[in-house]
# Entry
Amino acid sequence: MADCIFCRIGSGELDTAVVKRAPGLLAFRDMQPVAPTHVLVIPVEHLSAVRDAKGEAGVALLGRLLAFAAEVASDLGLDAGGYRIVSNTGRDGGQSVDHLHLHVLGGRRMTWPPG
Ligand code: 5GP
Ligand code: ZN
# Structure
């Protein structure tokens, strides 16, 4: 989608701090980090949110995306301390970019419930 910021990052049109790539997937630093480590993990293909990943291909993509997020967390040294993987969805979820993404947050103690 031409007007989607994460599509433009995923295609390489916009420069960003890339952390890791896998076929069809990209991890990059959030531009407004809310934790010492804050990485976004996206499929290059545009999907609006987890709920739009349907059918066999959608389920496979979600599995690869989640496993990739865990790999990124491990690469960044978060396994020992732990971390949080979050996908904000829609208005009440606090989603501000309508391109499926997982936040990988770590490096500090998270609180629960979230705000
Ligand atoms: P959401 O609010 O949709 O869950 O998360 C969107 C995230 O994308 C926010 O944490 C925001 O800081 C980040 N973000 C928005 N635009 C850009 C951008 O152009 N580059 C990077 N690296 N992060 C972005
Ligand atoms: Zn997009």
